[in-house]
Design a protein that fits this description.
Layout lengths: L1 H5 L3 H9 L3 H18 L8 H12 L33 H15 L4 H4 L7 H11 L7 H16 L13 E2 L1 H9 L5 E5 L11 H7 L4 E4 L2 H7 L7 E4 L7 H16 L15 H23 L1
Parallel strand pairs: 2-3
Antiparallel strand pairs: 1-4, 2-4
Length: about 300
């Protein structure tokens, strides 16, 4: 039907067919008929809903006090809103291992000897301990240099120097171990995040045997800051001044009750926590059993 409509003018069609030039044939079709079809294509009718919306927008009065200021988040325009992209970050390997280890320690059964390291001092107790130990921080390199220069000057002038030994914090695993074995240590703090844990896993039991008060604290970096190091596995206090004796006695008594004399620390096994998906699954199974029991009782 289309071809009959196009070639209704038979005389012109016969003239084109008789000729050998195909170019004239196609140009004739384009000029005469294709343009006509493009002009007569019907437009899509507008829906009644769209008209109603346009009328409502037109009728709505604009308040001059509240001018609409739409933001444009394209390149070079308004500042992009903050989004939580933590799920899309490629975290370093040490962070991934740290998180995976934390989850594993929650899932699998952890022996009591290792689980006790998670029972650290709370915020109030740790602040008291750290405020006391900061007074006994060892001298820095500059302070040591100044002290030696002063001692050399006084010696050159034949003056008496104060050769009294200063009480400071002791650090280093081997050093602290010898202090505990000889019962010279009066207080021992152990970091809870030592890796591998086998380095210090035996130290709490040694402190219990030698009756030296000890505690687990957060964290090895904070212990290291007390003794001007990057990290420290443990620190020990060998002596205190007279003005700090009463505070130290109260602190030592609390730590003995909480750690040395607390036998539950060596009995409680850690881990065994189920993930959120498994927890929901267990709850669904439990609910299904309860429904079955109700059905049986109702019959």
């Amino acid at each position: 039907m289309v071809w009959i409509d196009i070639f209704s003018d038979i005389s012109e069609f016969e003239q084109i067919i008789l000729g050998d030039d195909q170019y004239l044939f196609f140009s004739f079709i384009f000029k005469k008929y294709i343009k006509r079809f493009s002009l007569t294509m019907p437009k899509a009718p507008k829906t009644s809903k769209a008209k109603k919306v346009q009328k409502k927008v037109a009728d709505r009065k604009k308040n001059p006090l509240f001018v609409k200021d739409a933001k444009n988040f394209r390149i070079g325009n308004d500042v992009q809103p903050k989004r939580d992209l933590s799920r899309y970050v490629r975290w370093p390997r040490y962070i991934l291992l740290h998180r995976q280890k934390k989850i594993l320690l929650q899932r699998i059964k952890v022996p009591a000897a290792i689980h006790q390291f998670s029972k650290t001092l709370d915020k109030n107790q740790s602040s008291k301990v750290y405020s006391l130990l900061k007074k006994y921080a060892p001298e820095t390199k500059t302070e040591k240099k100044q002290r030696l220069v002063k001692a050399a000057e006084s010696k050159a002038q034949n003056q008496k120097t104060d050769s009294k030994k200063v009480t400071v914090l002791k650090f280093g695993l081997n050093h602290v171990t010898t202090l505990v074995e000889t019962k010279k240590a009066k207080l021992v703090l152990i970091a809870y995040d030592v890796d591998p844990i086998e380095l210090v896993v035996w130290l709490p039991q040694l402190c219990r045997r030698q009756e030296v008060p000890f505690a687990f604290v957060k964290n090895k970096a904070r212990l290291g800051a007390l003794v001007h190091q990057k990290t420290a596995t443990c620190v020990a206090l060998t002596d205190v001044r007279k003005e700090d004796q009463a505070e130290f006695d109260n602190l030592a008594r609390d730590l003995r009750q909480h750690y040395n004399e607390n036998h539950e620390l060596l009995r409680t096994i850690g881990g065994g926590q189920v993930g959120i998906k498994s927890r929901h699954q267990q709850e669904a199974i439990k609910k299904a059993f309860e429904i079955e029991e109700l059905k049986k009782t109702s019959q």
